[in-house]
Amino acid sequence: NHARESAGLPWPGGFLPGVIQLAQVAHLPGAVGHSMGMPDIHSGYGFAIGGVAAMDLDNNESVVSPGGVGFDINCGVRLLKTNLKAEDVMPVKEQLADMLFKMVPVGVG
């Protein structure tokens, strides 16, 4: 990759540049521990899409990166913690999926 840069060739998209971005994110000011890549990882605008990193909110040097959530076309992964159990959700799972689809904004991509 350094040869590509020296020759002025563009970075290839995809997995490897995403992994390099993960390593760079792990060294951002305020990063806590490691950065992780989800199965859909690919290069983004400085922060790998499908990448996850925790930042120390008590550290004044910490950064906030919207690139970590796939802000361009909402291709990020979401997590919601509830006190619901599988048996609570199963009878209404289709209605729940329909409502989430209607209520969660997405991009055109």
Notable traits:
109 residues, alpha+beta, two-stranded antiparallel ribbon, 4 helices
Characterise this structure.
The chain is α+β, with helices and mostly antiparallel strands. 28% of the residues lie in helices and 17% in strands. It is built from four helices and two strands; from the N terminus they run H-H-E-E-H-H. It has helices at 2-6, 15-25, 86-89, 93-103, and strands at 31-42, 49-55. The longest helix is centred in the N-terminal third of the chain and has 11 residues, at 15-25.
How would you summarize this macromolecular structure in one to three sentences?
This protein is of the alpha+beta class and 109 residues long. The protein has four helices and two strands.
Mean pLDDT: 76
Helix content: 25-40%
Secondary-structure class: alpha+beta
Main pleated-sheet profile: 2 strands, antiparallel
Which strands sit side by side, in order, in the main sheet?
1-2
**Which residues form runs of ≥5 with pLDDT under 50?**
none
